[in-house]
Specification:
The protein is α+β, with helices and mostly antiparallel strands. The chain folds into 2 domains: 110 residues, no CATH class; 183 residues, 3-Layer(aba) Sandwich (Protein Transport Mog1p, Chain A). It has 9 helices and 7 strands; from the N terminus they run αααααββααβββββαα.
Amino acid sequence: MLGGIIYSAGLVVAIIVVIYLQYRTFVKQQAVVEGDTSNIFNYKEVFGPMGLEFLILSLVLIWIVPYGVLVIAPIGLILSVLSPAGRITWSQTKVPRTMVCAFLISMIMLGSLAPVAQPKSPDSWGNPLLTENPNAPIWPASQQYTWLMTPSAGELDLEIIQSISIRTPHQLGVYGAAGSSLNLASLMGLEQSRLHQAIELLDDELSFVRLNPEEMALTLIPNQETHRYVSTTLGIDENIVIRQYELRSLSIGSNEDGVKVGEVLCAATSTWGGELQVLVIIRPLGHPDLTTDRYAEELVLDWLSA
């Protein structure tokens, strides 16, 4: 939550800085015409009619609207150029509007590097095998814990679990944040780099096939986008956003879509302030739970209760 407040404060500061710079320009222009006091600086008109009001509204909506700035910014741009008057306003306020856009983008980029909370780590899982992921993107800020689970005899029973805490730069609220973030990750292929480490672990454990992390692909499995996880013992009854993927090796066989070697389940929850908690479970093909427990009920419940 604190990171989100700092993030919002940075956006406010960006707007104030642009208004101040425009005020300084106004003062210099007035000084050129000595003794002219007929003009009064109006900070509300720096960004054009209703421009400041829209910016303030946007700072509120980024806490409420799913997809946040990815929806707000295009709507604002479209509304500002729909009418001839709007296009004239753009020409008249081009400098402050360009400046505030540049400052806001900078603040969003910097705010997304604010530290995040530690990933959820259930006591029953023990200490994570790895607490860093060198393959994870530098931006936005994130932390990742990884476990290698071999709960029963037989290498096909193994599971690789990743618990990730990551900042969501596009929105600060919880409404639709989990779903939008997973959709964006799939669209941009962001989950691929994070799986590099898990594929290496899976390759070390499997003896019947060699997996190259550079030649793996995730294929979304069309399925329900939420699943209800219930435990009266743990006091949990929640609909959690999930995504399921086929893990395919492009280096096996002749099919350009690759050969399925396992499945990946992602579950995500969000918190106010622009943070996402994600659980990733990777299971090789042949794992018994791929048919008997597709949604990894016990593991997800442990994670939710942590």
